[in-house]
């Protein structure tokens, strides 16, 4: 069973995959946040309702029923762990205390500002100037502990020395003591009672004991409001902790997803970078393109293809170099032979070795060899010129059919003398075309010369032309033995010469390469064919756009 290569996903799909996994992990972690309302439902993290503090009615009754020597047995659990009470006589002296604070008594003004057990008070103290004299405004507001509604308000205005100018309760006192004045200033804008933010709350209850003596019970207990806020803050702190943990969790998931995506992209890119560096040093490198992202895989595949092409180009360049060297050696030989003949015959004529009656025959040979050398040098010069990117042809309007007929007419006698048959099929009507006549002649010359050079007498040289609305087509070639498929694939490469299937004569191997460049300069194409209209051989199909 053959295993198929897994098709990689695109970068976008891979990102979506990581994102989906990250979202699932984040949603799974969302249980931390969902747990908070669930805890509220089951009361685990529910903020308790404000209770208003302890109900002191029971302990008040126990105190009222006790004499001054029997307060120690009273149950103080309602006051809480830190709570206690004190019993004061009418003068403020402490008769009993549940906690030894070292305090012996309360001043009357201190007792005045301790709220009743069912009230809370707020002291508002401000200073103003009246007729150039400093005056003070004191407002004591009473609130019911049950509903926080205002139950009463005492307003007094007094001077710097404590003398009362105005009092809303029409009291008998006309002056406050310096101690009370200092106490009021120290506690200005301070709340006293259960609803406010002190840790310990003091409340008083004035009563008469069984002996008829006036007493005051001072209750000390933890502020229910503070306890409520403490519990509320604890719950909110836990909730906020859950949220912070969840946010950190989300950031970690995002970080892990980002690092994962980065590493998946970084590894193949580093591999590619290393491979490119090695390629610059001439090494052959192949990278593994089996990665998880399609785009990166395509880049790596392209690199491998590029490497294969470079290797193929190196092989082709090396092969071309070898063929060029071989061709140059053949050309050197072709040049050396006529030069040797020319030099030898010229020396013989100069030295009088050749009889005068034979001198014309040897001069003809010298002239023929000189022409051969000239043709070889001309082809080299032309090929170099055509290789130059600045090479341009000089085109002019003309009748291409008439031009081809005239060319073949000039070559007809020569070809017949050499033993070749000529078969032409050129239309009589005009075929207008912009072309360079001298360069087009070189195309025809090079193809016909190849037929003459590489085939035997008796071979039919075939030339035809036809055109349609878009293309002019010329067929030129011969019905000789043709060429091998290997040679056919590189006929237009420079320095390519005939193989053993055709006549052994050799040239520079530049003729067809020059012909191809001229045809392409006219915007056309040239391709070799093994058969035309049932006639086998080697033909060249030349096509020009109209």
What does the secondary structure layout of this molecule look like, with pairings?
Blueprint: H1 11-29, H2 31-41, H3 57-64, E1 84-89, E2 94-97, H4 108-112, E3 119-130, E4 133-144, E5 150-159, E6 164-167, H5 178-186, E7 190-192, E8 200-208, E9 214-222, H6 224-280, H7 294-351, H8 359-387, E10 396-399, H9 400-417, E11 421-425, E12 432-435, H10 437-454, E13 460-467, E14 471-478, H11 485-488, H12 511-521, E15 525-532, E16 535-545
Parallel strand pairs: 11-13
Antiparallel strand pairs: 1-2, 1-9, 3-4, 3-7, 4-5, 5-6, 8-9, 10-12, 13-14, 14-16, 15-16
Helix pairs in contact: 1-6, 6-7, 7-8, 8-12, 9-10, 10-12
Question: Could you characterize the architecture of this molecule?
Answer:
With about 550 residues, this protein is an alpha+beta fold. It is about 45% helix and about 20% strand. It has twelve helices and 16 strands. The protein has a five-stranded antiparallel sheet with strand order 6-5-4-3-7, with no helix packed on it. A hairpin with a 4-residue loop joins β5 and β6 (about 165). The protein is rod-shaped and about 180 Å long. The two termini are about 55 Å apart.
Shape: rod-shaped
Radius of gyration in whole Å, from Cα?
A: 60 Å
User: Which bin fits the share of residues in helices?
Assistant: 40-55%
Q: The biggest beta sheet, please?
A: 5 strands, antiparallel
Tally of DSSP β-strands: 16
Give, in order, the helices and strands.
HHHEEHEEEEHEEEHHHEHEEHEEHHEE
Report low-confidence residues grouped into runs of 5 or more: 499-505
Instruction: Give the helix tally.
Output: 12
Structural class: alpha+beta
Distance between the termini: 57 Å
Strand arrangement across the biggest beta sheet: 6-5-4-3-7
Strand content: 15-25%
Mean pLDDT: 81
């Amino acid at each position: 069973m053959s295993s198929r290569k897994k098709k990689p996903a695109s970068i976008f799909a891979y990102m979506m995959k990581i994102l989906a996994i990250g979202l699932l992990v984040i949603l799974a972690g969302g249980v931390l946040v969902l747990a908070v309302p669930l805890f509220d439902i089951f009361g685990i993290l529910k903020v308790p309702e404000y209770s208003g503090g302890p109900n002191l009615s029971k302990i008040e009754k126990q105190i009222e029923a006790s004499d001054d020597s029997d307060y120690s047995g009273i149950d103080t659990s309602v006051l809480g762990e830190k709570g206690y009470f004190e019993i004061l006589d009418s003068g403020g002296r402490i008769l009993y205390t549940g906690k030894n604070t070292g305090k012996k008594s309360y001043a009357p003004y201190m007792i005045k500002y301790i709220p009743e057990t069912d009230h809370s008070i707020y002291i508002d103290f401000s200073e103003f100037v009246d007729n150039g004299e400093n005056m003070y405004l004191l407002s004591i507001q009473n609130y019911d502990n049950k509903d926080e509604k205002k139950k009463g308000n005492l307003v007094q205005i007094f001077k710097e020395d404590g003398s009362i100018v105005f009092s809303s309760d029409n009291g008998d006192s006309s002056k406050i003591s310096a101690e009370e004045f200092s106490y009021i200033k120290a506690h200005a804008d301070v709340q006293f009672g259960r609803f406010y933010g002190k840790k310990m709350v003091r409340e008083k209850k004035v009563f008469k004991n069984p002996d008829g003596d006036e007493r005051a019970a001072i209750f000390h207990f933890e502020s229910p409001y503070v306890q409520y806020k403490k519990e509320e803050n604890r719950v909110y702190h836990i909730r906020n902790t859950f949220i912070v943990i969840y946010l950190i969790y989300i950031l970690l998931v995002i970080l892990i997803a980002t690092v994962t995506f980065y590493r998946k992209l970084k590894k193949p890119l580093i591999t590619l970078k290393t491979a490119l560096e090695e390629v610059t040093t001439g090494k052959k490198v192949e990278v593994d393109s089996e990665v998880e992202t399609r785009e990166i895989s395509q880049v790596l595949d392209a690199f491998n293809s590029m490497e294969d092409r470079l290797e193929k180009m190196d092989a082709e360049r090396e092969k071309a170099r070898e063929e060029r060297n071989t061709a140059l050696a053949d050309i050197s030989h072709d040049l050396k032979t006529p030069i040797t003949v020319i030099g030898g015959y010229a020396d013989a004529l100069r030295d009088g070795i050749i009889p005068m009656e034979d001198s014309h025959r040897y001069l003809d040979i010298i002239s023929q060899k000189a022409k051969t050398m000239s043709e070889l040098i001309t082809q080299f010069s032309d090929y170099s010129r055509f290789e130059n990117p600045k090479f341009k042809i000089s085109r002019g309007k003309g009748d291409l059919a008439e031009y081809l007929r005239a060319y073949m007419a000039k070559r007809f006698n020569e070809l017949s003398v050499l033993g070749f048959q000529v078969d032409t099929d050129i239309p009589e009507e005009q075929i207008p075309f912009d072309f360079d006549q001298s360069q087009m002649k070189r195309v025809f010359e090079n193809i016909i010369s190849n037929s003459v050079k590489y085939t035997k007498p008796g071979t039919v040289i075939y030339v035809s032309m036809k055109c349609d609305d878009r293309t002019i087509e010329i067929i030129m070639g011969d019905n000789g033995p043709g060429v091998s498929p290997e040679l056919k694939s590189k006929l237009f490469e420079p320095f390519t010469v005939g193989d053993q299937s055709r006549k052994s004569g050799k040239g520079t191997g530049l003729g067809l390469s020059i012909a191809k460049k001229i045809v392409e300069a006219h915007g056309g194409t040239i391709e070799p064919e093994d058969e035309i209209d049932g006639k086998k051989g080697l033909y060249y199909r030349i096509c020009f756009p109209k």
